[in-house]
UniProtKB/TrEMBL annotation:
Entry superkingdom: Bacteria
Biased composition, class Pro residues, residue ranges: 304-313
Annotated Pirin C-terminal domain residues: 192-290
Coiled coil segments of this chain: none
Organism: Streptomyces bohaiensis
Classification of source organism: Bacteria, Bacillati, Actinomycetota, Actinomycetes, Kitasatosporales
Gene3D superfamilies: Jelly Rolls (2.60.120.10)
Region feature (Disordered): 1-30, 301-320
Similarity comment: family membership: Belongs to the pirin family.
Pirin N-terminal domain segment(s): 42-139
Name used for this protein in its record: Pirin family protein
InterPro entries: Pirin, Pirin_C_dom, Pirin_N_dom, RmlC-like_jellyroll, RmlC_Cupin_sf
Length: 320
């Protein structure tokens, strides 16, 4: 997934004092993506830049794309991060400069590690389902892994659980309550997709050292006495051993967590680096056709990198 903002502002990320338990409800900011998709951007936001190593969260749909092209995101580059594609409805065709060609379907994990550099495209297949609904997330790579070789993983089988009382879930990345996703991670993480029947109540087991957030995908639920509507993110801080959740209607939510990410970062356009030089070098390489390879088979031109902002790009903390 790409950040298609033609004038992206630098995002200040990383290295902030760790907050204790909190309840900060963040609304999504409507942002156009590609030719025909509008997403709700939840991270980075004005006051919250990261949750663990989760550095970017877009929620889109459910959109009726019958008779329409659906998602069409041309080839674009990434460095210093992992992209996580997660669908509830529809399909997304992934192509990348490693030669990967894969159709991602609901509750399958598409995990792309950019490392030193990769490019990819995402599109709805020509013969696609009526609805498109999902989330796109990025995970920052730690300093010692930021220049790792690029890779792509597609996991169709993931650990699931049924908690009883109308609660079930899938661990799509990291670990949760003793279950581990097969997806490769480079920092301690939790990514869990939960389905709750109307009236269901549960207490989710958490790790005190992790910070967490809950993204509402569909329906309405109450999380630690805060009502969370679809397309919003409730940031919860760290220091919790469990989390009370109640479904007001049939609801679907994502629990995101991880150890607070203490490194300072610069995020600009589709790049995550440690300095302005990292970003400048990546942008120049993309514009000159170096470093990122080519995406074969996409019917269209790759994205052009926007101009750099007139202000210096400085690594900053995790929140303003």
């Amino acid at each position: 997934m790409s950040n298609l903002d033609a004038r992206p502002a630098p995002a200040d990320c990383g290295g902030e004092p760790h907050p204790g338990p909190t309840r900060d409800l963040l609304p999504g900011r409507l942002t156009p993506l590609g030719e025909s998709t509008v997403v709700r951007r939840l991270l980075p936001s004005l006051g919250r830049r990261m949750v663990g190593a989760w550095i970017f969260v877009d929620h889109y749909g459910p959109d009726d794309i019958a008779g329409e092209p659906g998602m069409q995101v041309p080839p674009h580059p990434h460095i210093g991060l992992q992209t996580v594609s997660w669908l509830h409805d529809g399909e997304v065709l992934h192509r990348d400069s490693l030669g990967s060609l894969s159709t991602i379907r609901p509750r399958e994990l598409a995990l792309m590690t950019s490392g030193h550099g990769i490019s990819h495209s995402e599109e709805s297949p020509r013969d696609h389902a009526r609805l498109l609904h999902g989330a796109q997330l990025w995970v920052a790579l730690p300093r010692e892994r930021k220049d790792t070789a690029p890779a792509f993983e597609h996991h169709r089988e993931l650990p699931t659980f049924a908690g009883g009382g109308g609660v079930s879930g899938t661990v799509f990345l990291g670990e949760f309550d003793g279950a581990a996703s097969p997806g490769t991670v480079h920092t301690p993480l939790a990514g869990v997709d939960l389905a709750l029947a109307a009236g269901a109540e549960t207490r989710l087991p958490l790790i005190e050292e992790f910070e967490y957030a809950v993204l509402s995908m569909a329906g309405a639920c109450t999380v630690d006495d805060v009502r969370v509507e679809p397309g919003s993110l409730l940031y919860l801080g760290h220091g919790r051993r469990d989390l009370p959740v109640r479904a007001d209607t049939d609801a679907k939510v994502m629990l995101l967590g991880g150890l607070p990410f203490d490194e300072k970062l610069v995020m600009w356009w589709n790049f995550v680096g440690r300095s302005q030089a990292d970003i400048e070098q990546a942008r120049t390489a993309w514009e000159e056709g170096r470093r990122f390879g080519a995406v074969e088979g996409y019917d269209g031109a790759p994205l052009t990198a926007p101009p750099l902002p007139p202000v210096p790009l400085k690594p900053r903390g995790r929140a303003r």
